[in-house]
Amino acid sequence: MRRAVYEARVLAAFRGALNKSNEPRPPAGSEFILNLFQALSATRSHTQGGPNPISYSEIEAYARLHRLPIEPRHVKMIVEMDRTWLEHAYASIGTGDAQTPNRRRPTLDAASFDAVFG
Fold it and tell me: What is the rounded CA–CA span in Å between residue 89 and residue 96?
């Protein structure tokens, strides 16, 4: 199977799993990338506005610590899966999409400043 077709099928199966349709099924051999994404996603940081994307440095550090042979194509897949996951997550919490989350900006008034800095 050509790489582009394989990657498209993995992403389609991933989207199906997010939408709880379980269709289409992941192609054979996709367990490595799916498990890798799941492990990285479990360690993602969150803010008041929601989850943060998985960074390249987190991918690199995980691969190095676990001595995994990650190639650029794997990183590309993880980034695409993460973008899809973030879009789904932000849509489900109603704060916009992953590219422009509708995060509330904290306001700082004089009373708050005085409370912190005296």
Answer: 9
